[in-house]
Design brief:
By secondary structure, the protein is an alpha/beta fold. It is built from 11 helices and 13 strands. Strands 8-9-7-6-10-11-12-13 form an 8-stranded mixed beta sheet. Strands 2-1-3-4-5 form a 5-stranded parallel beta sheet.
């Protein structure tokens, strides 16, 4: 019987699938470090949600063959070390995409329609309704940074709202000017200058770390909007707080932060016109089920012919 370490509590669909396929499941949160160490040689697979999987952990499990992520972001896994040991890193490729897309548009529509203030007016002083400020997102241009599983859906939904959609993703060759009917911009600065919304859908890598810094944000027109449902380290949080304060960024929304859980000194906590959520874009009932099931299915597939190519994490990818 092959043994799988599930590092954290997840929807029961995944562990149930593993057991149905003959795997022993170790629930990592129920055993001590010593007990886990005693089982090191037995563990051939890890199913991980948000815990860090370090090189030390990887090297301490001599028979580890596959690490399956409950989600898609692998910045908490030492993927390079896993690769060096011929360990497959798998992702639940499409499991959370729809949920993150909807969360992105929740943020954008909140920015455009200001429903919290509208509710406040109804409850406190109805005469203030004439002071409500709102706009139609369909009249705006959006730059979708990253045209992968999530970015493609965001672009399609933005088009349905009537938005002008620009795509920026370095995976496309320089000679390509259009993708799926959307204009492709190869120069990020050019795309930022032309957009009133920026939505980020790329993974955090050495290449993308701090990509959206103060200089990049200043490329956007005054009063623009920024949404980050990707990874916190991609955006310079101090600069973002400064620019929302000055009004250059009209409003921002972040589901992710450079340090999680967010620390008390994070400048976004005190920033003006800022919406925050606790890295919960994928926390829908449907997404939690899909991520758990897909992560477990990847492990089953690994030992039954191989993980589908689309579910193997690409260390070099720039697109989420």
């Amino acid at each position: 019987m092959k043994t799988v370490l599930v590092t954290e509590k997840i929807h029961q669909a995944g562990p149930d699938l593993l057991r149905q396929n003959g795997f022993e499941v170790i629930e990592g949160w129920t055993v001590s470090a010593d007990e886990l160490s005693a089982r090191a040689e037995d563990i051939e697979a890890i199913l991980v949600r948000t815990n860090r999987i370090s090189s030390e952990q990887i090297l301490s499990l001599p028979n580890l063959k596959v690490i399956s992520k409950h989600g898609v972001g692998c910045d908490t896994i030492n993927v390079a070390c896993a690769r060096s040991q011929n360990i497959t890193v798998a992702i639940a490729s499409d499991a959370n995409a729809q949920s993150v897309v909807e969360h992105t548009f929740m943020f954008m529509l909140n920015m455009a329609k200001n429903p919290v203030y509208m509710d406040h007016v109804v409850r406190t002083d109805y005469s203030q309704r004439t002071h409500i400020k709102a706009f139609d997102i369909g009249a705006r241009t959006i730059l979708v940074l990253g045209y992968g599983r999530i970015g493609t859906r965001v672009a399609a939904l933005a088009r349905a709202f009537g938005m002008t959609v620009l795509i920026c993703d370095e995976k496309f060759d320089a000679g390509v000017s259009e993708v799926d009917g959307f204009e492709l911009v190869h120069d990020l600065n050019e795309g930022l200058k032309r957009s009133t919304f920026l939505t980020i859908h790329i993974p955090l890598t050495d290449k993308s770390a701090n990509l959206i810094d103060k200089d990049k944000m200043l490329q956007m027109p005054k009063g623009s909007y920024l949404v980050n449902c990707a990874r916190g380290g991609i955006v310079d949080e101090k600069a973002l707080a400064e620019l929302t304060g000055s009004g250059h960024i009209g409003a921002s929304a972040s589901d992710v932060f450079s340090v999680e859980p967010i620390t008390a000194d994070n400048p976004l906590l005190e920033a003006d016109n800022t919406q925050l959520s606790p890295h919960a874009a994928a926390f829908t009932a449907e997404s939690l089920y899909r991520m758990s099931y897909q992560a477990a299915s990847n492990i089953c597939d690994y030992f039954d012919g191989g993980v589908p190519a689309g579910n193997i994490y690409d260390l070099d990818a720039f697109t989420a």
